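[job 4471] stage=fold_predict status=RUNNING
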Amino acid sequence: MNILFLIYHGFSEVSGISKKIHYQINGLRRLGHKVYVCSYAIRDDGHRVRFIDNDPLQDFGCGRFAAIQKRCCYDAVVKFALEKNINLVYSRSFHNANPFTIRMFKAFRKAGIRSVIEIPTYPYDKEYDGAGMTARMELAMDKVFRRTLAKYTDAIVTFTDEKEIFGQRTICISNGIDLEAIPLKDSCRQAEVLPPGTACDKEKTINFVGVAEVHYWHGFDRFIAGIGEYYRNGGKRDVKFHIVGGVANSEMYDSENAPGFAETIEKYGIQDRIVFHGQLFGDKLNEIFDTADFAVASLGRHRSGIATIKTLKNREYAARGMGFIYSETDSDFDDKPYIIKAPADESPINIRQVIDFADKLRMTPEEIRSTIGNLTWERQMEKVVESV
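[job 4471] inference complete, writing structure tokens
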């Protein structure tokens, strides 16, 4: 099958979203499909360009008019799909339903080309709380046209259990993993590591890690507050929380949607307990994972109105062989013995409980990883192809 994987942005080496998209594409290719990748980026010379793989498909030039054109002109994409006998268009939603994207998908349907739109998180409207005027206007446009856009697709791909979104049937899949791309945690590098089955050393530092391009729905402020409460109530263990990824000022200070990290840290006087590493990848990221004892996934999805979701981060932690904590409903992990479910509310995380759980967890990284063999991207993308 010839597949056009359509996204409305470019790629970044440190972006988890970019890595996920590449994993999905590799999964389709491993299934034997020919996959073309259509993306958009601003080149170093300022030109706004739509690409097919690494080759320019449409150069819009520079300036404001070019910025408008890239939002309106999709004829070149349709023409490419016709020339290459594309059978399926797999599009990743950019919350950009409008008359121009509708026109493109109508053209696909008229040509007999199947199409699906992946909505990474649903519902997503509350993610725009506190956003700027431009973003809110784009969401307003999306609200007007998204049901019409959905009508011209064959299905909506979702990581929830919803049977229908915007009036269109869904294909429910899980965020997948690429086991070849995610290294297993090397527990031998972990500081003061203990052999499986031995009594836990209650004196050693316990290192927690949370990796994300941080937003308020990750709820890391709850974990920080939990560490503060742990020490306020007499906690003695040396606890470190390593945050890896970009943290915007809106999350660090005066957050409109959640307590700011800096304010919470200062409130409890735990500056030496929270370590901000910034964006890491490759060996430096692997080193953080190798020396960590337990991972922190999303603790605030309820803030964006989401109760059920199958996040990529949960799967990446399990692929590395780590236990972790999260608060949403994720049917792939809710019954696993290496996870803790936090309440989906605003309470500080019970750090003493998490420490006790991590101390008693005796599954090896290999054993944890072995539980997710059904969550490879090949299997998840195969569900999409078979469904359409």
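[job 4471] summary: Residues 75 and 264 are 50 Å apart (CA to CA).
[job 4471] exit 0
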